[in-house]
Amino acid sequence: MNTQGIILRKYDFRESDSFFSVYTLDSGKVEAIARGVKKPKTKLGGHLNFFSIIDLRIAKGKIFNHIAGAVGQKNFLNIKQDLNKINLAFYCLEVTNYFVNLEKKDKRIFYLLKEILEILDSKNNQKDKLLNYQYYLSFSYFYILKLLNLLGYKPELFNCLKCQKDILLSENNYFDAIGGGIVCEKCKSKEMFKINFEIIKFLRLILEKELHDLQKENITSEQQKELIKTTDKFLTYRLDREIKSRRFIVKNSH
Ligand SMILES: [Zn+2]
Fold first, then answer.
1. What was the pLDDT predicted at 242?
2. Burial (CB count within 10 angstroms: exposed 0-12, middle 13-18, buried 19+), residue 182
3. CA of 42 to the centre of ligand 1 (A)
4. CA 195 – ligand 1 centroid, Å
5. Can you list the domains of the chain with their CATH numbers?
6. Cβ contacts of residue 157 below 8 Å, gap of 6+?
7. In what order do the strands lie in the sheet containing 181-184?
8. Above 50 in pLDDT, residue 254?
């Protein structure tokens, strides 16, 4: 099979081989072994890099698939030069690897993944270092929300989760992270937290628009924080183990 792929994860495997989890355009997530890539200066190993679009030839096997050929097509070099961006990109890759099933093709996921790498690779003109970091942090969260949406974990943002009443932005609303959506004032319970109408509007926008188009939207840093908190809670209840790379982005966001 010839296809394009983006590496999600790399594992050590045998003495000189590596085992890759790759999101491919034509087969979704595929796991495959690359032989001999740990030896210095191998042709194959030089192309199997993180944060790259790679043209791959994958030989399907009975037990293991093998990567028979790889040519790097696009390298997102700005990510590789910035530790914050590396951490955010690894977080997006790890969440993707966690949620997507093996060999379930969805081209939208491939293009969304490509889009977040392009955004992380882009330059942002914020002068302040923290604001700059928050910009990329927000986009990583927008990515995660859009990914979860494509995988069928869409938060309910229009009707109260409990009584189905239309959510009115003029009233007080609450976020139910366990149920996965908004509830009205009457249906709230103590584990839910109040959610600002601006955040509800922004969450709706994230799910409606392309990732790139969100670059034009204005959001204050307070709103960003609230959005991240909401997404974190939503995500936590949909995981059964910790996403390891999360600790690096949390440490940096304070
Ligand atoms: Zn209700």
1. 84
2. buried
3. 60
4. 14
5. 2-75 (2.40.50.140), 77-156+187-253 (1.20.1440)
6. 167, 181, 182, 200, 203, 204, 207
7. 181-184, 173-176, 193-195
8. no
* SS3 (DSSP) at 138: helix
Q: Could you list which residues have their CB under 5 Å from ion ligand 1?
A: 160, 162-163, 184, 187
Centre of ligand 1 to C-alpha 167, Å, is 8
Sign of CA dihedral 29, 138, 142, 165: positive
Task: Name the one residue in this structure whose structure tokens are 């209840």.
Answer: 237
Whole-prediction pTM = 0.93
| Long-range contacts of 82-87, Cβ-Cβ distance < 8 Å, separation of 24 or more | 84/133, 84/136, 84/252, 85/120, 85/121, 85/136, 86/51, 87/245, 87/248, 87/249, 87/252
Residue 6, pLDDT > 90, answer yes
Task: Write out pLDDT tens, residues 231-252.
Answer: 999 999 998 888 888 888 875 5
Q: How far is the CA of 188 from the centre of ligand 1 (A)?
A: 7
